[in-house]
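Protein in question kept underneath.
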Amino acid sequence: MGELRQLDEPTAAPGQIPQAKSNILVVDDQPANLKLLEEVLKEGGHAVRSPLGRLALEAAARHVPDLILLDINMPEMDGFEVCKRLKAHDKLALVPVLFLSALNETQDKLKAFRAGGVDYIAKPFQLEEVRARVETQLELHRARQAERQLLETTLSGAVKALSGLAQLTSPTLTGRSGALRNMVVQMTTQLRLPEAWQYELAGMLCLIGCITLPPDVFEHAYSGEASDEELRMYRGHPEVGFQLLSNIPRLENVAEMIRWQQAGDPNPASNDVAQRGARMLKTAQELDRRTLRGIPFQTACDQLRSASGKNLAPLLDALKDYAPSRVHFEVQRLAPQQLMAGMILEDDVVTEQGSLIVIGKGTTLTSTLVERVRNFDKTGGVRRPIQARVPRGF
């Protein structure tokens, strides 16, 4: 690997570590251009790296920059191709690329934007224009990052609230949702799918519509022991889940995956991402049902492969090294103050008089549920001791 030239960072007071405003990658094969850009950016307080053109992708992936200034006319690989490869890279797709070029034809600028560039600076450089465009793009990038972080935090909170609702409604439902999520994460990881969070959320929430079902109806239908009426009720849960999620911004694909999870192929979902996600959910559920009947996981995969032909082969191949996690528990008799998140209730937690179920048998405790038990204990008392399965090592 060639050497990367690193500018000195902005000076700081004695004893202080200098802090650059941002990290910028400049890719240009003309030394005079590089020197001029480095000086301008250094004056603005930015740290700059300037790898050789062919090493730009490797350098960017090793230390993700905040902005890339990219020349178009370079030997070996032009800037358009470099930009396309940057945008196809998981770690670099969101980094803004500002093109530099002496090509001033409209078609060249359009080609730059189509390749994924966010702006275009014509050569020879006007220094004030360079400063202004760089600062503008850095500001926009920081704003997009802040918005993305806020959105991810909001989505995470919404998912936790929905998961908590499912937890209170049916402990069995929560357990199955966790198993399905784990399989979906394995598939997305092995298949290197972009926007993997969508599939993971779909795995976590694919059974959320079952909160409208009595717990015994869900358990009978999921295990394959349901009556015709119970099956009819169960088959309606994907539409309920879709309705719950479809109005949440950025969860449109997740809602579609959940809506069509029971559908056969060809899948009627509206786009390829939703189709793939729905197929993953269906595969995970088929495998989970088999393992609940005592069939070893890889045997269940072989059975499903034989039944489905080549259609599910890529998903099943992604699970070839997967094994459901196994946690060893021991039953303990506890007071309310001894309960902790992660324990599983062996019996219903009821009020002292036995007139009200506080939390049902089989529930995996969360910090919120532990607080619920303790609050009931403070106000009216709960029956003791509470029997719970405790993971070894707690």
Notes: The beta strands are 23-27, 47-49, 67-71, 97-101, 119-122, 329-334, 344-345, 349-350, 357-359, 386-391. Confidence is low (pLDDT under 50) at residues 1-17. Residues 23-143 form a domain with the Rossmann fold fold (CATH 3.40.50.2300).
